[in-house]
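Researcher: I'm preparing a figure for a lab meeting and need a structural model of a single chain. I don't have an experimental structure, so a prediction will have to do for now. The sequence is pasted below. Please return the structure as C-alpha cells so I can convert it later.
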Amino acid sequence: MKIFRKIRRTVLISGKTKSYIAYALGEIILIVIGILIAWKINNLNEIRKNKIVEFKIYQSLNEELNSNLILLDSSIARYTKDLESINTTIKSIGLEEKDLTNEIKEGIVALNYKTTQLHNGAINSVNSTNKFEFIESILLKDLIASYPNELDSFESQENKIENIIVNRLQPAIESHVSLIDIISKRGLDFKKAKSFSQESNYLSLLNSRSYQNALIDRLLQTEIQLLNSKVLKIKTETIAFKLNKELSSL
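Model: Understood. Here is the structure written out cell by cell.
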C-alpha cells in the first residue's frame, strides 16, 4: 500500500492529469481483481464443504438402504414360507379327524408372526432438514422424497396382517384348541397338565366360518405384502444404485 501511495503522490506532483486517471483506473482494476480472487477462493471452499456434507449424507443413506435390502430379503423369504403354511391349512379344511396329522395341527396353531422393522432414520433426516439441499441429483431427490411413503405403506400392510392374527385368528384358535397341546411334548409335567385340560377340536375350528374367513383374509393380505416386499426391494436397489453412482463421482 505504501508503494501505491508513493506512486500516486509522484503522479499528482507531476501534474499530468491523464497519467493520474490512468493510474487510478489501474488501481481500481487491481482492487476488483483482488476482490474477485478472494470471492473465488471463498466460493471454492464452500463447494468443498458442501461436497463433504453431501458425501456424508450419501454414506449414511447407503448404509441404511443396504440394511433394508437385507431385511427385505428376509421378509420375502418369510412371507413365502407363511403362504405355504396358510395354503396347507386351507387344504386341511374338510379333512377327517384321522387325516389331521400332528404336522397339520402344529401348522394351524403356529401363528408366530414377525414384522419387518425397516430403517428410516437417515432418509427421514434428509427429508425433514436442510440436508436435502445438498443433494444435487434431481432424480435422486425425487427417489428419496417418495421413499418414506413407500415405507409407510409397507408398515401399514404389515399392521393389517398383524391385526388379523391377533384379533381374529388367535381368538378363534384359542376357543377351539387347548394350547397345552403345543407344549405337552416337552415333558411329563406338561403331559399331566394336558390330562386336566379341555380336549381340542381341530375339526370344529377348521369348519368355523369366522376362522375360515380370517384365514383367507390373511392369505390375501400376505400375498399383497409379498408383492410389496419385492417392489420395495426394487425401489430400494434403485436408490442404492443411484447413490453409489453419485458417491463414485465425488
